[in-house]
Amino acid sequence: MSIGTFTFRPLDPLRDAELLHGWVTHPKAAFWMMQDARLQDVEREYMRIAADEHHHAHLGLHDGEPAFLMEKYDPRYVELAGLYEPEPGDVGMHFLVAPTDRPVHGFTRAVITAVMEELFADPETRRVVVEPDVGNKAVHALNEAVGFVPAREIDKPEKRALLSFCTREQFLRARGVTA
């Protein structure tokens, strides 16, 4: 059974702020750390990202409907600057699946797979870097399912994080694709 088609479009901070506000303040998005954000806070945060040449936000669409958020960043300048030794081709990533009353089995794994495919579609991307909260066991399992290997815990200003990496080869191997 196919879950559907995933596509991406650049996030429009003003047009999409209300939608995002509902997602980032939902109890299931606790690790996004915006539980108490007002609509204006969400607008301001995504305007800041839109103005940053090293950080980009994309709305993920499932069969044409908004279903998740993907952020792509250059870890040399954003999020991880000074916290690890970046390699050429490193790309940082965050993703958030929209809350739903009708969960579809395998949907979140399909989303992270689509996100990884999108990131690796750029031939310059050699390795994807993530830094989820150490307590976010669900995302650790998802990350490992698509090929991420935990490296070490690091202290960020807002959290203790599990620094993990996934090369193109590890991602393909996790998907059962041989080169």
Overview of the structural elements:
- The chain has 179 residues and is α+β, with helices and mostly antiparallel strands.
- The protein has one domain (6-175): 3-Layer(aba) Sandwich (Aminopeptidase).
- Helix content is 31%, strand content 27%.
- It has five helices and seven strands, in the order E-H-H-E-E-E-H-E-H-E-E-H.
- The protein has helices at 13-24, 39-51, 107-120, 137-145, 168-174, and strands at residues 6-10, 55-62, 65-73, 90-97, 127-130, 149-155, 160-167.
- The protein has a seven-stranded mixed sheet, sandwiched between helices.
- The protein is globular and about 40 Å long.
- The model has no long low-confidence stretch (mean pLDDT 93).
Q: In a nutshell, what does this entry contain?
A:
With 179 residues, the chain is an alpha+beta fold. Helix content is 31%, strand content 27%. It has a single domain, classed as 3-Layer(aba) Sandwich (Aminopeptidase), CATH 3.40.630.
Which key features would you list for this structure?
alpha+beta, Aminopeptidase, seven-stranded mixed β-sheet, 5 helices, 7 strands, 27% strand, Acyl_CoA_acyltransferase
Which residues sit in consecutive blocks of at least 5 with pLDDT less than 50?
none
Structural class: alpha+beta
CATH class group: Alpha Beta
Gyration radius over CA: 16 Å
- State the strand order across the main sheet: 1-2-3-4-5-7-6
The portion of residues forming beta strands comes to 25-35%
Enter the CATH topology name: Aminopeptidase
Give the oligomeric state.
Answer: single chain
Report the average pLDDT across residues.
93
CATH architecture: 3-Layer(aba) Sandwich
**Element pattern in H and E:** EHHEEEHEHEEH
What distance separates the N and C termini?
26 Å
| Helix fraction bin | 25-40%
Please give the domain count. Answer: 1
InterPro entries: Acyl_CoA_acyltransferase, Acyltransferase_MbtK/IucB-like
Function: Acyltransferase required for the direct transfer of medium- to long-chain fatty acyl moieties from a carrier protein (MbtL) on to the epsilon-amino group of lysine residue in the mycobactin core.
Protein name: Lysine N-acyltransferase MbtK
Pathway: Siderophore biosynthesis; mycobactin biosynthesis
